[in-house]
Specification:
By secondary structure, the protein is mainly α. The protein has 14 helices and five strands. It starts with a strand and ends in a 10-residue tail after the last helix.
Length: about 375
């Protein structure tokens, strides 16, 4: 018997109902609901694994869960597994969504659980045990942005690495060139790593208001960070600096053809795949260690530096930076735009210059001529 696409489990003769089959049916129904709400397959799989993990940890089926089970699970994730504040909050969100679905009378799961097992579902993630989201920035405080001096030294060393590989006679000069362009692209358009990795040559186009940017005045970002597990967000980012055009044009016209024809991906590998995030992170760490930079830098630091330079370094409007970065809320953009030491130093120099100029300028004589 079926009711609203839910399977109704009825025990036959003396056979006891199978809780494993019931859990599988609930999870399948929840997956259908999430697909209907346009959540991505990866998000659905992750949430399913989390529910099964909670079942294994607690030793109870979902209709047996209590607030105490949830407290134990999340405190273990935070205190023992040392998961971040944001990760635990995402776990709680997934469990809460599952309980909301199972408790919803529209789907009839509670009624079936009562008939089969004599218990019903309950919400186990409430304001009593949920991690608070008291501030917009939950990032780890040790992460920081690049200063302009650090960026210049890093890019110079990445370019030098290409020549060092060539001079040594080793293979890998083309990959080193690709990595150098990848780092500059992360900063040049304020891209996330996954957005940069999936760029293709067709994603670049002209900006009629900036013909001097040639065929690279606009980049179409098609792999933007999705909202709440839905499809990838798409945006257009305008090219701000001329040097980024020179870098990407030189790579596409002279570097990519060395991988063979045709090549559509901007950052491929010799095996035909896309350059991996782990590879880029390893290369970046090697360059940072050689330069002796203080800790706290990662691939996302390029994006932080881009936003900071746009707003505090060059005076662009916050709304422009928000659109460039693909942020839904301006409050998110503000997280990236804390004044850098370079900006603070420049601001202090401008203030000193104004003070000195005012001191050198003779004061007008306000006395009246009789």
């Amino acid at each position: 018997m079926a009711d609203d696409d839910n399977v109704v489990f009825a025990p036959f003769w003396q056979q006891a109902p199978d809780p494993e089959l019931f859990v599988a049916a609930i999870l399948e129904g929840w997956a259908k609901q999430q697909r209907a709400k346009d959540f991505s397959p990866a998000t659905i799989r992750t949430r399913r694994k989390l529910v099964l993990s909670f079942i294994d940890f607690s030793g109870h089926y979902p209709w047996e869960w209590t607030l105490g089970d949830a407290d134990d699970y999340f405190s273990h994730a935070r205190a023992v597994r040392n998961l971040s504040h944001a990760t635990v909050r995402s776990y709680q969100t997934a469990i809460k969504l599952f309980c909301d679905y199972a408790c919803d009378p529209s789907y009839d799961w509670n009624e079936q659980a009562a008939k089969l097992f004599g218990q019903v579902f309950a919400q186990v993630v409430t304001e009593l045990n949920r991690v608070t989201h008291s501030q917009p920035n939950t990032g780890r405080p040790q992460k920081r942005t690049f200063s302009q001096r650090e960026l210049q030294e890093l890019f110079d060393l990445a370019d030098l690495e290409v020549h060092r590989v060539l001079d040594s006679g080793r293979r890998g000069a083309l990959a080193a060139w690709r990595d150098s362009v990848a780092f500059k692209s992360l900063y040049g358009w304020g891209l996330r790593t996954n957005e940069m990795r999936h760029l293709q040559t067709v994603d670049f186009s002209r900006n009629s208001r900036a013909p001097y940017m040639r065929d690279y005045g606009v980049v179409r970002v098609r792999w933007g960070k999705p909202h709440r597990g839905s499809a990838k967000k798409v945006r257009s980012a305008l090219t701000v600096w001329q040097w980024t055009v020179d870098v990407i044009e030189d790579w596409i016209e002279r570097g990519l053809p060395r991988y063979g024809e045709p090549i559509n991906d901007v950052f491929p590998t010799s095996t035909g795949g896309l350059v991996s995030e782990s590879h880029l992170l390893d290369k970046l760490r090697g360059l940072i260690d050689e330069l002796g930079f203080p800790p706290g830098l990662d691939l996302h630091s390029f994006r932080r530096a881009y936003a900071t330079q746009l707003i505090t370094g060059e005076g662009f409007d916050v709304t422009f930076a928000q659109l460039q970065l693909g942020h839904e809320h301006a409050a998110t953009t503000s997280i990236y735009t804390l004044p850098s030491p370079d900006y603070q130093r420049a601001a202090l120099e401008r203030a000193h210059s104004r003070t000195l100029d005012a001191a050198r300028t003779p004061r007008p004589d306000n006395r009246r001529t009789p």
